[in-house]
Every structure is written in C-alpha cells, then in structure tokens.
Design goal:
Elements lengths: L5 H14 L12 H8 L3 H13 L3 E4 L3 E4 L14 E3 L8 E10 L3 H6 L10 E9 L6 E8 L18 H9 L5 E10 L2 H7 L6 E11 L3 E10 L4 E3 L8
Antiparallel strand pairs: 1-2, 3-10, 4-5, 5-6, 6-9, 7-8, 8-9
Helix pairs in contact: 1-3, 2-3
Length: about 240
C-alpha cells in the first residue's frame, strides 16, 4: 500500500521477522538505532512502530534494558487474555487439567471461522480442559485448533499444570496469540458441562466464545469457556488511567 504510513510499513517488517522467529519469545530485539539503520528510516519512525507492537502486547519495553518479544509464560503476561476474576476482583493462579483430546474433520462452520482450506484432508484438534483455583472446577473449556499448525499435538504435549495453553503454543509450535475476540452469553449448563463443574444440570453459567488470532490477523483457535459465576465474574477494562 503506497499510502500506508511509513511507521506501519516498519511495523509490518518487524512482524515478518517475528513470524520467521528471527527473535524468539523472551529475546531482546535489536536497538531502535540498529533497526533504524536496517530499515533506512528515522528513530521516531522505529519508535512509533515498536510502540504499536508494545501496546498490542507483542513486544515489551523494559526501561534501561531494551525491548523484548513478549512471552506468554512470563508472570506479567501469563493471564493477559484471561478475564475471569474472583468476586473480590483479583486474578488468581489456576490449574489446568486436560479431560480429552481428539482429532476430527471440521464442520463447515469451524472451517469458515478458522479460515481453513476446504480440502478434505484438513483436520482439527479438539481439546476439553477443566480449570480449578481456590474454588475447584470453576470453569471448563472446549478448544479447537488447526492440526497442521500444531503437528504432533497429543495428550502428552498438554501436561496438566498452571501454565496457559498460549504459552505452550508459543514455546512448542511458534504460534503467538496476539489478539482475541470474545462474545459473552448467559446459558444453562448441559448435562456434560454440569458434570465437569460439579453443579446441577441447567445451572446458570457464563459462556465465553472466543476466536484467537496470530500475526496477519489469522485465526488459529476457537474456544468456548463455561464459567460457574458463584465466586467468579468476567472483568474487562478499557482506556488508560489519567
């Protein structure tokens, strides 16, 4: 795009390097001066490009040290996309437990939402997990990802524990989640979900439907999460403190 601002062109080139894993998660990228020389632009242009990527959570600026590629397993980034909090308002560490994992052929809606090729050989991996914290089994989720982006993904590669799946995606498959779109609904729990959460069938639950995106706005994960809201709620914040 000839009319695209120069700093956005530089941003695109930095993203291309991230896609190629030129700079790995947790690594420091070259200094602004080095990048300005590399892309033949001014320092202010590089700063604007890095600023957008930092605001998006793709890069992390550390005062006096440099700029690093965000790592989903880092403490400050671990629950970046997890907006379920206790009714006290605090986010608490959770424990993830894999309940099932299987490969299957996607239905037309899944194919469309993940923008998959329509060839019959394309498969997806469907996972079901349970989340526990102070109050046991407060949420469970069903997750669908394209099998070709996660080769060899099986139960052994999804160990139970406190780390997020996005950290696993990033570390083992080079798939970086940089944006999510979520829709919220009030629903009644099915028999299966009620059994997982140890609540009565038809108990009111919060359902969160999510599409997660990587670079170039490519969808790489569908996720539906059911939350028992007796002790938890969904919290979102917008804008910056004045």
């Amino acid at each position: 795009m000839p009319n695209r601002p120069l700093y956005k062109q530089v941003k695109d080139r930095i993203v291309e390097s991230l896609i190629r894993n030129e700079w790995r998660p947790g690594e420091m990228i070259p200094s602004e001066k080095v990048l300005a020389t590399r892309y033949e632009v001014g320092l202010s242009t590089v700063r604007a490009a890095i600023g957008e990527l930092a605001n998006a959570g793709v890069l992390i600026r550390t005062q006096g040290k440099g700029t690093y590629v965000a790592h989903h397993s880092a403490r400050d980034n671990l629950y970046r996309f997890f907006n379920v909090v206790r009714n006290t308002g605090e986010k608490e560490p959770f424990y993830r437990e894999l309940l099932s994992l299987r490969k299957e052929r996607p239905d037309p809606r899944t194919t469309a939402r993940l923008q998959l090729p329509t060839e019959h050989r394309i498969r997806v991996v469907r996972l079901r997990i349970r989340l526990s914290a102070t109050h046991p089994s407060f949420a469970c989720a069903e997750i669908v990802v394209p099998a070709h982006l996660f080769p060899g993904l099986d139960a052994r590669r999804v160990p139970d524990g406190p780390s997020s799946l996005y950290a696993l995606y990033q570390a083992n498959y080079g798939v970086n989640i940089i944006r999510v779109v979520e829709s919220l609904y009030a629903v009644r729990g099915s028999t299966a979900i009620a059994g997982i959460l140890n609540v009565k069938r038809n108990e009111p639950l919060l359902q969160i439907d999510r599409i997660a995106y990587t670079f170039n706005d490519t969808p790489v994960e569908l996720r539906t999460t059911w939350v028992h809201t007796r002790h938890y709620h969904f919290l979102t914040m917008q804008g910056d403190a004045a």
